[in-house]
Amino acid sequence: MKRVEKESVVEKLNKTFRENESVLLINFTGINVSDATDLRRKICEAGSNYQVVKNRLALRAIEDTSLETLKAHFQGPTAIAYTGGDPVVLAKVLQEFMSHHPEMAFKAGVVEGRTISASDVGSLAQMPSRTELLTKLSFLLNAPLTGLAAALQSPLRGLASVLKQLEEKKKER
């Protein structure tokens, strides 16, 4: 790789690291090309990206980014998975894939500006996604309103029922 190409790669990686709030480092040993392609497809479907990086170039690219704290983890085969969206979804996709490929492992990561360890990434994968949490929150916020609406409608239903019974009694006479 020529120097100009290397500089271009470093620039692109630096831009990627600056634009994405969540980046996970992965040891990708033990997977073949078809498995790697399958992983890329799954990650892409989750709205994220996956890229194998050269450690020397990545170390240059992380300067002045939130990933500077991960310098020690750029050793051996390294891939990055990154997203500007929900990091939980990305972690779940990776955790699912790694359950079928035990030779792969998380190294560390940065999630929304915070450095996390490999075990923390596993814990992140166990959390409900942002969408699930928002759904639960909307249900919890909606439940009291639904109860109030039902309580307010109850006397009206009772009144309507009494009026209907009175009307039926008048018709019987």
Question: What is the structure about, briefly put?
Answer:
The protein has 173 residues and is α+β, with helices and mostly antiparallel strands. The protein has helices at residues 3-19, 33-45, 55-61, 87-100, 118-126, 130-172, and strands at 22-27, 49-53, 78-83, 105-111, 114-117.
Backbone CA Rg = 27 Å
Query: What's the total count of β strands?
Result: 5
Category by helix and strand content: alpha+beta
Question: Helical region count?
Answer: 6
H/E order of the elements? HEHEHEHEEHH
The average pLDDT is 86
Strand content: 15-25%
Q: N-to-C terminal Cα separation, in Å?
A: 101 Å
CATH architectural name of the largest domain: 2-Layer Sandwich
Main β-sheet: number of strands, strand sense, barrel status?
5 strands, antiparallel
